[in-house]
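Reminder to self: tokens first, then the designed residues, so the page reads top to bottom the way the pipeline ran.
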């Protein structure tokens, strides 16, 4: 493919990624609240009580986005990815002047850059389409886990099945490796969870981590699982030790593992075979 065409596609993918990043901010903020509303309604139904009288029923589409401090509804001009935050709002609500979290433009920029790189890396192929869906899901999962220590089934489970579906035609790996990857990904962390719990009486990770690794195994095959686990464990250990030493993060305060799995999965998506080859070369 000509270099100019590849660059043009990457730019278009980056612009699309900025828009998707804006939507991911909505998902990251609202999905845990939607889950909480659903849990409260289910608990009330189980107890035979009337459903909680929510002042506002949240969905990903309604109500319109607004400032959490003053309730000002965000206009279309204030909702342009990245540009509104930097040039129009300058990091503050236009109504009350309260600062807006920089996480919003960071998510948009990260999604845009990774989307552009994905299309540049894979070109106009089915791999690029699948990789974009995987990357967008991993960004949402990582941010939600950082905020709430939750990895929603509404993202992880469809992600797993989508990985299997893409690999029916061997998009990233053959279907046998994909199915085994899903099984091995789940069972490996599930086994570690129970061994740790039996040894210490504590839960070292959540069930969402099992499902996320299963999804990554479905997308990339069982061969990538050791690389993903090794990368996520190393990064997690470094960050955890840094938080304890520098930020005086309590040893008993849980640290979400999902962001490290997500980051390792993204690295394995782009450079997994090369990393695995180097790793095996060091051993042998």
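Designed residues (284 positions):
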């Amino acid at each position: 493919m000509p270099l100019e065409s590849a660059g043009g596609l990457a730019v278009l993918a980056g612009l699309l990624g900025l828009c998707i990043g804006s939507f991911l901010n909505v998902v990251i903020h609202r999905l845990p609240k939607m889950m909480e509303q659903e849990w409260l309604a289910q608990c009330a139904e189980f107890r035979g009580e009337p459903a909680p009288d929510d002042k506002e029923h949240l969905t990903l589409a309604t109500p319109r986005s607004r400032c959490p401090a003053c309730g000002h509804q965000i206009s279309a001009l204030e909702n342009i990815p990245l540009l509104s935050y930097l040039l129009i709002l300058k990091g503050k609500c236009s109504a009350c002047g309260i600062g807006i979290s920089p996480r919003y433009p960071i998510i948009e920029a990260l999604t845009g850059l990774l989307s552009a790189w994905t299309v540049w890396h894979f070109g106009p192929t089915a791999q690029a389409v699948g990789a974009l869906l995987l990357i967008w899901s991993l960004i949402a999962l990582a941010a939600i886990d950082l905020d709430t220590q939750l990895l929603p089934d509404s993202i992880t489970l469809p992600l797993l099945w989508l990985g299997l579906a893409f690999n029916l035609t061997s998009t990233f790996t053959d279907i046998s490796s994909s199915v085994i990857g899903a099984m091995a990904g789940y069972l490996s962390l599930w086994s570690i969870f129970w061994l740790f719990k039996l040894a210490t009486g504590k839960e070292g990770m959540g069930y969402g981590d099992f499902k996320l690794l299963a999804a990554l195994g479905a997308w990339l095959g069982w061969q990538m699982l050791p690389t993903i686990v090794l990368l996520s464990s190393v990064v997690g250990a470094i960050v955890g030790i840094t938080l304890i030493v520098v930020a005086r993060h309590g040893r008993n305060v849980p640290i979400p593992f999902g962001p490290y799995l997500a980051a390792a999965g993204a690295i394995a998506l782009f450079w997994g075979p090369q990393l695995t080859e180097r790793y095996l070369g060091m051993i042998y």
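The mean pLDDT is 88.
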